[in-house]
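Virus attachment protein p12 family
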Amino acid sequence: MVENILLGLITLGAVYYLYRTLFKNKGCGCGKDSCSGKK
């Protein structure tokens, strides 16, 4: 039970990290949240 919860959190964290890096690469890629809003 605990292993499944940890695995789920790690998976969600990895997917979220990949999503943010890909989204910022499409933008300016400066790594700031305010900058990612400028497309």
